[in-house]
TrEMBL record:
Limits of the TRAP C4-dicarboxylate transport system permease DctM subunit domain: 7-421
Annotated localization: Cell inner membrane
Domain of life (superkingdom): Bacteria
Alphabetical list of InterPro entries matching this protein: DctM (IPR010656), TRAP_DctM (IPR004681)
Function: Part of the tripartite ATP-independent periplasmic (TRAP) transport system.
Membrane protein topology class: Multi-pass membrane protein
Transmembrane segments annotated in the record for this chain: 55-73, 85-111, 117-136, 143-166, 172-197, 246-265, 277-299, 319-349, 361-381, 401-426
Family: Belongs to the TRAP transporter large permease family.
Entry GO terms, CC: plasma membrane
Name of the featured protein: TRAP transporter large permease protein
GO molecular-function term, one example from the UniProt record: transmembrane transporter activity
Complex and partners: The complex comprises the extracytoplasmic solute receptor protein and the two transmembrane proteins.
Keyword field: Cell inner membrane, Cell membrane, Membrane, Transmembrane, Transmembrane helix, Transport
Amino acid sequence: MIATLLFVVFVLMMLAGVPIGASLGLAGAAAIALANADSQWFGLLAVPQNFYAGLGKYPLLAIPMFVLVGSIFDRSGVALRLVNFATAIVGRGPGMLPVVVIGVAMFMGGISGSGPATAAAVGGVMIAAMTRAGYVPAFSASVVGAAASIDILIPPSIAFIVYSVLVPGVSVPAIFAAGMLPGLLVGLALMVPAVWLSRKHSMGLHEALLPRPPFWASLREASWGLMAPVVILGGMRAGWFTPTEAAVVAVFYGLFVGMVIYRTIRVRDLFVILRESGELSAIILLVVALAGIFAYSLSTLGIIDPVTEAIVNSGLGEYGVLALLMLLLVAVGMFLDGISIFLIFVPLLLPIANHFHWDPVWFGVLLTMMVALGQFTPPIAVNLMVSCRIAGVRMEQTVPWVMWLLVALLSVLVLVIAFPQVALWLPTRLGY
């Protein structure tokens, strides 16, 4: 009865427009109070305790820092310089600008790990350029939204950090390494339909008339941005600093590039940057803390075990259960961001993974890819919503283009399911 009430209250509050964090916390607190009806006030002491426990984890310190890094690099002009360098490499011609978009988005993912931030940074530079080159605005928005979804796979990924906190025995370096190869494969897979659609529909015909940026000059301009992932990931691999410390190093590196090298960030801009990143970090960490209350209510009410038994004994088998989880998470990913999905569903799904003896690192990559699918699947998709707003198109206009891009990402997901070593080879090679 109480378990049913927990989910009913949560869903009703979400439908009423209550923020996801408040819905999680209030539904969890109500369930805890009803479960301890005889000693209600004593039982409610679990609410502040679990609120604090949800935040009191060292790896979470990296989240506000990486959010700040994304904001700094967004304003420093790194995206524009990376676009010029990528264009100098791939050249001009039909289908080449979408390749540039996807390549730059993958690289930006190696700096901040935030999909909406990348969609805003890359879309702000590229959508207008693609329109001038003869690409349909809805197609441009689709490519940017899909490319930004790769960011939660390529380290440093905020979603991976949250997953490592939720799952015992999964280290941040291991899950970072596991996402690298699948993230690169997704990027390459997205390029195939993007180029094919461009040429099939004769888009980008004006692109060949535009001048190609000089290679060495664009390389020199982009070199400081190109070094950012090397500093962040290389420093972690060399053992110079932990992932959390790497985020702090990345902040100072970004400020140095923006204020000293490019001089695109002034002292008075710092207040705006700090305010924006502080607001976004507060939202993320508040959701994390309130989700701790929800997770505690799940465990104390004994909801997880019956759900696990029902799925495991459904007769679907291992791959049938994976297909069911894929449909569930892609559907949920249309409405919620990756961090909220992990906080809600990982406590429920982890016992299923343990039952089938799935590697937790591999399972984390799979969950993240499923969430990435949902982030640019209409009708409600976080990344696609940002790119559509920049392009000035309605989301339903992107459906004919998005479907092909979804098939590309889905093909890589099936590959990772069939061959787990695609995700596990690099962390094993690096000794994680």
